């Protein structure tokens, strides 16, 4: 049965995906449940929303009692886009985290070194992205909370060891484990059917340990079989090979741009850009700067490659990377 989701529901779902705090997530989930059409076609989705509400309430309740050891099923994004490092045991995720970010994970040559999630911040061309290292996924044993953290991320960095004899098997097994938990990786941003229980996330396949003797031949096979289905990037976390290209691909994966705010009569602050999704508009930007600005916006001017400097723009103007926006309220 068709779901026929309402615009009100879709707006609430967008709020949930963009929420930065537990309270915001809970409020968005309540709005989703209140606005979803009530019929058989949405039974599964209604049940899923109710489960998420119950789980989030429990986490908030326990977290409010002051326990320092209460575990949470999500990693606070701290206002940043979030990518999670996912992979089988001993593929080099922790070494990648150390090479890409300011984090200092424990690194060892034996499997299951990582037992708890560890976030770090990657800086690239004035972007800041949170990268989270997770315990290994496995068809034998996996921390029960790992899939939940993956589902709340903005994208997945799936790591395989390119220097082993079985990189294709590693990739297929990793994808299979994720799919068992209803997590589907896509090459591009994917508009999933919101009535289905699967979580669709943009994914980048990182072929690590590309400096090994077997890596060149394995990389060629991997490209031939998967480059049309997934974004791929060969790297070596130990030598730093191709890490700058990996950072660029992370930006592409997230589909984000930098937009700068310029107070009238003053210079723009280029040190702290607002990170926007590609395709978002001036109205989205005004709402991000301050929740009242969108309603009270009189007009705006833009400095950027797509328009004349200082040109007036309308609310539906689609933002471009490195646009400078002057809001007039």
Give the strand content.
15-25%
Q: How many discrete domains?
A: 3
Main sheet attributes: strand count, strand direction, barrel closure: 7 strands, mixed
At the fold tier of CATH, the topology name of the largest domain is: Rossmann fold
CATH level-four homologous superfamily name of the largest domain = P-loop containing nucleotide triphosphate hydrolases
Low-confidence blocks of residues: 64-70
The secondary structure category is alpha/beta
Our count of helices gives 10
As a whole number of angstroms, the C-alpha radius of gyration is 21 Å
CATH architecture of the largest domain: 3-Layer(aba) Sandwich
**Using DSSP, what is the number of strands?**
12
Please write the string of helix (H) and strand (E) elements.
HHHEHEEHEHEEHEHEEHHEEE
Account of the 3D structure:
The chain has helices spanning about 5-20, 20-35, 45-65, 95-100, 145-150, 165-180, 215-225, 245-255, 280-290, 295, and strands at about 80-85, 120-125, 125-135, 155-160, 185, 200-210, 230-235, 255-260, 275, 300-305, 305-315, 325-329. It has about 325 residues and is of the alpha/beta class. The model is unreliable at about 65-70 (pLDDT under 50). It is globular, with a radius of gyration of 21 Å. Helix 2 (about 20-35) packs antiparallel against helix 3 (about 45-65). The protein folds into 3 domains: about 5-65, no CATH class; about 80-255, P-loop containing nucleotide triphosphate hydrolases (Rossmann fold), CATH 3.40.50.300; about 260-329, Beta-grasp domain (Ubiquitin-like (UB roll)), CATH 3.10.20.30. It is about 35% helix and about 20% strand.
């Amino acid at each position: 049965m068709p779901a026929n989701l309402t615009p009100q529901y879709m707006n609430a779902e967008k709020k949930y995906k963009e929420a930065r705090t537990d309270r915001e997530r809970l409020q968005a989930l309540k709005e989703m449940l209140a606005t979803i059409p009530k019929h058989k076609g949405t039974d599964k989705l209604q049940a899923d929303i109710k489960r998420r509400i119950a789980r989030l309430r429990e986490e908030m309740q326990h977290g409010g009692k002051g326990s320092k050891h209460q575990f949470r099923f999500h990693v606070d994004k701290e206002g940043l886009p979030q990518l999670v490092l996912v992979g089988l045991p001993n593929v080099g995720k922790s070494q990648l985290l150390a090479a890409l970010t300011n984090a200092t994970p424990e690194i060892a040559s034996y499997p299951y070194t990582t037992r708890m999630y560890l976030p770090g911040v990657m800086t690239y061309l004035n972007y800041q992205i949170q990268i989270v290292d997770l315990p290994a996924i496995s068809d034998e044993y996996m921390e029960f909370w790992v899939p939940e953290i993956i589902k709340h991320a903005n994208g997945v960095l799936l790591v395989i060891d390119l220097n082993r004899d079985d990189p294709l098997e590693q990739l297929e097994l990793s994808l299979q484990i994720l799919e068992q938990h209803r997590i589907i990786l896509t090459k591009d941003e994917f508009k999933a059917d919101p009535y289905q229980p699967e979580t669709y996330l943009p994914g980048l396949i990182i072929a690590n340990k590309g400096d090994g003797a077997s890596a060149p031949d394995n990389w060629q096979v991997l490209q031939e079989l998967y480059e049309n289905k997934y974004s791929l990037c060969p790297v070596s976390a130990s030598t730093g090979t191709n890490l700058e290209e990996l950072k660029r691909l992370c930006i592409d994966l997230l589909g984000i741009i930098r937009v700068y705010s310029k107070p009238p009569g003053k210079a723009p602050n280029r040190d702290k850009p607002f990170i926007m999704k590609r395709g978002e508009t001036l109205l989205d930007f005004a709402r991000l700067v301050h929740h009242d600005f969108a309603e009270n916006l009189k007009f705006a001017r833009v400095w950027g490659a797509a328009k004349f400097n200082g040109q007036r723009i309308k609310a539906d103007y689609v933002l471009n990377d490195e646009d400078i926006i002057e809001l007039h309220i």
